[in-house]
């Protein structure tokens, strides 16, 4: 019997939420080192990032490092009209923030600070599980799949997608659906997977 997407979500979410504070900190530091070794960023790159939630790999240190290198960072904001897709809004140290419906922090909506998806150079995505082929399982909302549907269908060159995850979030094979957008690169604290 194959394990369902829902069951895999539950198992892996429990696993990552059971990591200790020490393990989380070490993972965050190793991710930051591993990321710098594997991703050669152009000057002033525009990079979509995320803020950790639900035991995800923390990004605070990576964000600080990217800012210190002069990168322009953007955070996902749930689209105020569609409610099911993401916009990417500039994120600076002093950006006013609010909690969205999942209690995840996002910048207060300011339309003049939105970057169209195609103008991001990189997009770093959170995920619940990934497999040997680069398939991605999210939290179940389909936000990134919907936001990236046209990008994937039309094979845009930009942004480059990079999934970030703990090493324990890898499984052999995920059951996939037609709308799932796979990831060409996934970076963990220990590995860099490319497909
Ligand atoms: N491109 C899309 N267009 C319309 N609905 C979508 C699209 N992608 C995903 N969805 C919807 O989002 C729901 C959740 O997607 P799923 O892939 O299971 O979540 P996640 O990627 O967060 O793990 C699906 O049941 C589907 O109805
Ligand atoms: Mg999906």
From TrEMBL:
Pfam families: 5-FTHF_cyc-lig. This is 5-formyltetrahydrofolate cyclo-ligase. Keywords: ATP-binding, Ligase, Magnesium, Metal-binding, Nucleotide-binding. Transmembrane segments: none annotated. Substrate binds at residues 51, 56. Signal peptide: none annotated. Belongs to the 5-formyltetrahydrofolate cyclo-ligase family. It catalyses: (6S)-5-formyl-5,6,7,8-tetrahydrofolate + ATP = (6R)-5,10-methenyltetrahydrofolate + ADP + phosphate. Its EC number is 6.3.3.2. GO terms for biological process: folic acid-containing compound biosynthetic process; tetrahydrofolate interconversion. GO terms for molecular function: 5-formyltetrahydrofolate cyclo-ligase activity; ATP binding; metal ion binding. ATP binds at residues 5-9, 136-144. It comes from the Bacteria. InterPro entries: FTHF_cligase, FTHF_cligase-like_sf, NagB/RpiA_transferase-like. Its cofactor is Mg(2+). NCBIfam families: MTHFS_bact. It comes from Pseudoalteromonas rubra. It is an enzyme of class 6 (ligase).
């Amino acid at each position: 019997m194959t394990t369902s997407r829902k069951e895999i979500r539950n198992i892996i979410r429990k696993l990552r939420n059971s990591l200790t504070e020490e393990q989380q900190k070490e993972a965050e530091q190793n991710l930051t080192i591993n990321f710098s070794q594997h991703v050669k960023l152009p000057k002033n790159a525009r990079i979509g990032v995320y803020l950790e939630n639900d035991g995800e790999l923390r990004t605070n240190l990576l964000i600080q490092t990217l800012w210190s290198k002069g990168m322009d960072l953007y955070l996902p904001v749930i689209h105020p009209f569609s409610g099911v897709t993401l916009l990417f809004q500039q994120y600076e140290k002093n950006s006013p923030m609010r909690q969205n419906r999942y209690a995840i922090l996002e910048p207060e909506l300011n339309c003049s600070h939105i970057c169209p998806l195609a103008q991001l150079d990189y997009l770093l995505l959170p995920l619940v599980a990934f497999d040997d082929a680069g398939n991605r399982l999210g939290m179940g909302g389909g936000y990134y799949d919907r936001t990236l549907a046209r990008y994937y269908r039309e094979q845009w060159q930009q942004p480059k997608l990079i999934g970030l995850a703990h090493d324990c979030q890898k499984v052999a094979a995920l059951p996939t659906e037609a709308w799932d957008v796979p990831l060409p690169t996934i970076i963990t604290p220990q590995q860099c997977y490319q497909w």
